[in-house]
Every structure is written in structure tokens, then in C-alpha cells.
Amino acid sequence: MVQSIGLPKEIKDGERRVALDPSAVKSCVQAGFDVFVETNAGVGAGFSNADYEGVGAKIAANAKETWAADLVVKVKEPQESEWGFFRRDLTLFAYLHLAAEPALAKALVDSGIDAFAYETLEEKGGLPLLAPMSEVAGRTAAIVGAHYLAAGSGVLLGGSAGVPPARVVVIGMGVAGTMAARGARGMDAEVTGVDIDLHRLYMAHQEGTVTATLASSEHAISEAVRDADLVVGAALVTGAKAPKLVLRDHVASMKPGSVIVDLAIDQGGCIETSRPTSHSEPIYEELGVIHYCVTNVPGQYPKTASRALSAAVVPKLVRLARDPEDPMLTGSLNISKGEIVHPVVAQAIGR
Ligand SMILES: NC(=O)c1ccc[n+]([C@@H]2O[C@H](COP(=O)([O-])OP(=O)(O)OC[C@H]3O[C@@H](n4cnc5c(N)ncnc54)[C@H](O)[C@@H]3O)[C@@H](O)[C@H]2O)c1
């Protein structure tokens, strides 16, 4: 039986989000739960201790006190320094992305904890707890892509009179890809959307989100990427390691100073030359191409991102606290009592 909910301060590099804003905490308190918020957990997103106390939360002096609750809710996957807080009678609700985090998966399995992941919770064919952050990350991809092109090839997305616009290729036209495409179109770039789902491409085409669409195949991607100024990777197979769709040779064929933003890096990356980066060191150059592969992109817009995440999470959190077998949590349970119970996640990490 869950009586208490802990809300630790995020500690991943550059992470300023918080999983619950004060209005979400108020909903939990009204639902009858004691909520322990780590001191200054919301400061990065603009929420003070007083804001949380005002809605009935108790302020915990440190992380340990929040992890002592029956259920811990947070944004990013627990960092190594938090793994010591895992215990058998604890429930965790957070982004886990275990396909790309086998060591974390092992620590969770070994501890006997029940770990529910936001990103695999399915509802009506969608991923309602991934979608809000994919929306923010997608919009951000267009912004950072345009920004790093200035330092790279010096191409402006929208071009100018007598100079054609930049070419942007978005691979995976789901929530993140659609928002990245919209952002790039908003800056007047020429945008090609790539997906295996022809209906998604039809919709993107109809709505004018892209200037062209391409059915996903190695051949089509190799040609599109060769001519691109900016490539955004946003392909996802729920729970699985991201499919490698842009191979090393394709990257080598890109123009010097082009930019890759691989949003799918949190699932291992859909571009062969991608490796995780952080807000402190967001980019590296490989084969003459700038790579931006930050695993917590929305962390740089903490107010918008925290409010969006919080609104999506709180109804599910209350259900989880009341009944972990609630059907509205379908797909979320990744690890239970020493076993990886999500079949796609289990396959992805070879257990
Ligand atoms: N880096 C970050 O901070 C950050 C933040 C939010 C989301 N993400 C990641 O962005 C990725 C996309 O998330 P989403 O919510 O948009 O997912 P989504 O499920 O809405 O969309 C994924 C799309 O990929 C397509 N796809 C699958 N296989 C493909 C293939 N072989 N070729 C082309 N397209 C293919 C699907 O058909 C779908 O349209 C995920 O990995 C997610 O975790 C990263």
C-alpha cells in the first residue's frame, strides 16, 4: 500500500526539470498521499519550497528522505549515486530507457524494486508519458540544429533571396519528428520526413509539416542524408534499442559542417556515429559532421517541460499509487521483483 510519495531533485547533468509541479503535488495530497519534496527540487523550473509547502507537501532535507517514501517519482533515469536507494519494497516511476542502460537495468533487477517507465506506458496506440517531452525535444531539435549550423557549415535554414534554403531530413515522423519538422519549416527550411509508417507520412504531407516525404529504407536514407544540411534522428520502436538507420558511410558522405541531432540517443541512437552527450558538452565532431546527442534535451526548457510532464504524469501516478495493476498503466512496468517483465525491454538488453 502506497502512503507516501517522494519527489527527489534531479541530478543528471544540466537537468533542471522536476517531475511534479505544485499543482500536481496538490492533486496527490488531495488524493490522500503524503508527498515529500526534496528541498529546492523545483527551483530550476521556477517552483520554490514555499510553493510546494503551500499545497501541502513536506520539504525533505535531502534525497535520502525522499527515497524513503513508498513510491518515488522523478524525471530522468536514476543516476549511479542514486542506485544505493533502491530497495525491494520501493516503487519507482520515471523515464528509464533501459534498452540503452543495461547497468541500470541490472541494478534495478538486483534490488528487487518495482520499476515503472514513462516511455513504455501505452494508451490508444500512443505513448502519453513520452509524448510531452518528445514535443519539447522536437521543437528544440530545430532550434539547436539551426544554432550549430552557424558554427558548422554556416548555412541559414531559411536561405535568402538568390540562395536556396537548407535541407533538413527528419527520420521518424512521430511526435518528436513532427515537432522538429514543424520547427524547421517555421524557419523556412526544406524538410523531408522519413518513416516506415506511410499513413504518418501522408498526414505530414497533407498538413504541410514537410515539403517532401520518403518511405524509410537504407537506400532512400543514404541519398537524403548525403544532401542534407541538418539530420534529425527521431525513430523509435517502443522499448527497443533504436534501429540504426543512418550508417557511418552515410555520415561520411555528408557535407562538412553539416549537423546531426540524434534525439533517439536515449534509446541508443538511430545514427551509427552517435554517442550520448550532455548539456555541459553537447556536441562533438565526427567525419566532419557536428553531432548533438544530448539525452535530456527538454532539461534546458525546465518550466515548460516540467509543467507538460507533470500534467501527463499525475493522473497515472495517482492510479499507480492506488493500484499498480491498473489497466491505465499498461506497458509501463519494466522490472518487478528481480525480473525484467517488459518483453521488448528484456529482449533489448538480452535477458
Ligand atoms: N534526447 C531527448 O532528450 C529526448 C526527449 C524526448 C524524446 N526523445 C526520443 O525521441 C525518440 C522519438 O520519440 P517519439 O515520441 O517521437 O516516438 P513516436 O513513437 O511518436 O515516433 C517514432 C516514429 O519512428 C518511426 N520509425 C520506427 N522505425 C522506423 C524506421 N525504421 N525508419 C523510419 N522511421 C521509423 C515510427 O513509425 C514513428 O513514426 C524516442 O527515442 C524518444 O525517447 C528523446
From TrEMBL:
It catalyses: L-alanine + NAD(+) + H2O = pyruvate + NH4(+) + NADH + H(+). One of its GO terms (molecular function) is alanine dehydrogenase activity. InterPro entries: Ala_DH, AlaDH/PNT_N, AlaDH/PNT_NAD(H)-bd, NAD(P)-bd_dom_sf. SMART domains: AlaDh_PNT_C (SM01002), AlaDh_PNT_N (SM01003). PANTHER family: ALANINE DEHYDROGENASE. GO terms for biological process: L-alanine catabolic process. It holds the Pfam family AlaDh_PNT_C. May play a role in cell wall synthesis as L-alanine is an important constituent of the peptidoglycan layer. This is Alanine dehydrogenase 1. Belongs to the AlaDH/PNT family. The gene is ald. Keywords: NAD, Oxidoreductase. Residues 6-137 form the Alanine dehydrogenase/pyridine nucleotide transhydrogenase N-terminal domain. GO terms for cellular component: plasma membrane. Signal peptide: none annotated. It comes from the Bacteria. Pathway: Amino-acid degradation; L-alanine degradation via dehydrogenase pathway; NH(3) and pyruvate from L-alanine: step 1/1. It is an enzyme of class 1 (oxidoreductase). Its EC number is 1.4.1.1. Residues 146-293 form the Alanine dehydrogenase/pyridine nucleotide transhydrogenase NAD(H)-binding domain.
